[in-house]
Write a sequence for this structure.
C-alpha cells in the first residue's frame, strides 16, 4: 500500500477538516443515550427490501436476511486463517466494546434510523441528523454506539467505521480507503455543525492503519487493573487533533482494502485475547425454569429441509448460573420475547421471512418450541468452565454454528498479540511451539 493511500485514509478518518480550534463549534456534554427508549418503525418492510437489494442485488433473499443486521460480520482469527491475514491487504482498527448499529437516513421519509442486530428500525429522536443528512439522497453508515471519554467529558458516541452511501453517493463497491473518506466527511459534518449540542449522541470516525502498523493500535490498549479476572475490561486510548479520547476495547478488527463493503473477496477478521472470546447462544425458558445444575445452549444453523430457512442446533450443556438475579433476568427476557411472538424455536424452526415474509423480533415460533433468549457466554479459565456473562435482548438470533466453531478454534489456538504483530509484519507465523507452551 502506497504512502499516499495511507495518508489519504488517515486524513479522512482523523482530520478535523481544517477548522481552526478557536472557531470550531463546542459540543455540550452528552446525556446518556438509552437505545431501549427509542420508538420502532412500525412498517419497515419496504425499507428492509431497499437496503437488502442495495447490498445484495435484486436476488431472492434468504429468510434469515430479514432478521439480522444488514452488513458483513467478522470471523475470529485462528491458526487456520492466519495465511489470509498475512497475505491479504488489510487495515486494522481497535475493536470497540459497544453496540453495533447501522445508521440509515431515508431522504423520502426524512427520517434517521438506527438499525439493530435484529434488523429493527429504531427512530433517532430529534431533527439534528435529519437536517445534517438531508438534501441529496439517502445515507447509510456502519458503526457502533459506545460510551467514550472525550477531553474529560463522558458521552455517548456513534463511532463510524464504514460507509455504504453518503448523501446519495454510493460507495459500497469502492475500496476501503475511499469509503473511509466518506466516513471522515460524515464525522466532519457533525463536528462543524453549529447546533451539534442538540444531537442525541455524538459522531466520531474510527482510526484505521495499515496492518503493518498494528503495534501502534495495540499500544493504545490497556487492561483495567480493577476488572474481574474471569471477564477482564480493556480500554483503548488515543490522542487526536481534537484531544484525548478513550472507550472500552474488545480486541482488534482487520478490514480488507478490496472487495467492497460486503467483503466479497476476503473476510473481515477479528482478534481477541482468549479471556475476551465469547459467543451468543440461545437458552430456553423451559430449561431456565427447570431445577437443574445444567443449562442446554443452542446455536443457529441451516434448516435441513427449507433452503432459505434456519434451525436451532444443540451445542452442549453448561453449568447453570448461580446468580439468581441473572437467572430471573434471563427468564424475563425469554418471556418478553415469547409475548412478542418471536421467542420460540422448534427443533427445525427458524425465523420466518423472505420477500414479503414475516417473523418475530427474536426468531420465528416454528415448531411450537419454548420461548427463549440470547445470552453471551465465555470460557472462564480460572474456573475451568463456560459461564453466562449477560443477556443479549438486542440480538434476534444466536450465533451461526460456523461462528461458534471459529471461536472455539480461536480459544484452542490462543494466539497472542505478539503472534498477530509478527503475521502482520510478514514474519514467520508458524510458531508451532506456542500452543505447547500455552498448554492448549
Amino acid at each position: 500500500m502506497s504512502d499516499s493511500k495511507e495518508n489519504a485514509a488517515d486524513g479522512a478518518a482523523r482530520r478535523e477538516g481544517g477548522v481552526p480550534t478557536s472557531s470550531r463549534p463546542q459540543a455540550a456534554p452528552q446525556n446518556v443515550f438509552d437505545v431501549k427508549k427509542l420508538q420502532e418503525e412500525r412498517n419497515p418492510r419496504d425499507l428492509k427490501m431497499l437496503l437488502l437489494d442495495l447490498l445484495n442485488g435484486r436476488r431472492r433473499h434468504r429468510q434469515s436476511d430479514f432478521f439480522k443486521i444488514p452488513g458483513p460480520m467478522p470471523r475470529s482469527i485462528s491458526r487456520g486463517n492466519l495465511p489470509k491475514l498475512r497475505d491479504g491487504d488489510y487495515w486494522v482498527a481497535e475493536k470497540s466494546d459497544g453496540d453495533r448499529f447501522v445508521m440509515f437516513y431515508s431522504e423520502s421519509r426524512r427520517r434517521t434510523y438506527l438499525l439493530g442486530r435484529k434488523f429493527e428500525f429504531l427512530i433517532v429522536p430529534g431533527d439534528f441528523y435529519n437536517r445534517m443528512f438531508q438534501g441529496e439522497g439517502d445515507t447509510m453508515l456502519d458503526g457502533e454506539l459506545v460510551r467514550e471519554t472525550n477531553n474529560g467529558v463522558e458521552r455517548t458516541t456513534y463511532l463510524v467505521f464504514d460507509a455504504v452511501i453518503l448523501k446519495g453517493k454510493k460507495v459500497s463497491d469502492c475500496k476501503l480507503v475511499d469509503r473511509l473518506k466518506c466516513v471522515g466527511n460524515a464525522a466532519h459534518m457533525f463536528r462543524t455543525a453549529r447546533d451539534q449540542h442538540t444531537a442525541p449522541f455524538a459522531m466520531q470516525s474510527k482510526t484505521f492503519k495499515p496492518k503493518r502498523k498494528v503495534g501502534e493500535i495495540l499500544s493504545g490498549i490497556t487492561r483495567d487493573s480493577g476488572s474481574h479476572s474471569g471477564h477482564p475490561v480493556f480500554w483503548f486510548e488515543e490522542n487526536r487533533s481534537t484531544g484525548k479520547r478513550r472507550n472500552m476495547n474488545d480486541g482488534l478488527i482487520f478490514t480488507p482494502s478490496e472487495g467492497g463493503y460486503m467483503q466479497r473477496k476476503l473476510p473481515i477478521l477479528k482478534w481477541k485475547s482468549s479471556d475476551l472470546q465469547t459467543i451468543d447462544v440461545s437458552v430456553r425458558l423451559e430449561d431456565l425454569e427447570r431445577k437443574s445444575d445444567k443449562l442446554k445452549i443452542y446455536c443457529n444453523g441451516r434448516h435441513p429441509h427449507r433452503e432459505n430457512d434456519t434451525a436451532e442446533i444443540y451445542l452442549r450443556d453448561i453449568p447453570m448460573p448461580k446468580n439468581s438475579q441473572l437467572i430471573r433476568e434471563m427468564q424475563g427476557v425469554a418471556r418478553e420475547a415469547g409475548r412478542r411472538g418471536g421467542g420460540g424455536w422448534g427443533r427445525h424452526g427458524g425465523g420466518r421471512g423472505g420477500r414479503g415474509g414475516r417473523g418475530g423480533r427474536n426468531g420465528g415460533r416454528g415448531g411450537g418450541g419454548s420461548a427463549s433468549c440470547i445470552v453471551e457466554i465465555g470460557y472462564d479459565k480460572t474456573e475451568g468452565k463456560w459461564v453466562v456473562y449477560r443477556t443479549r435482548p438486542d440480538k434476534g438470533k444466536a450465533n451461526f454454528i460456523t461462528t461458534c466453531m471459529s471461536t472455539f478454534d480461536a480459544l484452542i489456538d490462543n494466539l497472542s498479540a505478539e503472534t498477530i504483530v509478527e503475521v502482520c509484519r510478514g514474519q514467520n507465523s508458524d510458531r508451532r511451539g506456542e500452543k505447547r507452551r500455552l498448554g492448549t
User: Anything to note?
Assistant: The two ends are 36 Å apart (CA to CA). The chain has two domains: 35-56+70-273, 278-341+370-419. The mean pLDDT is 83.
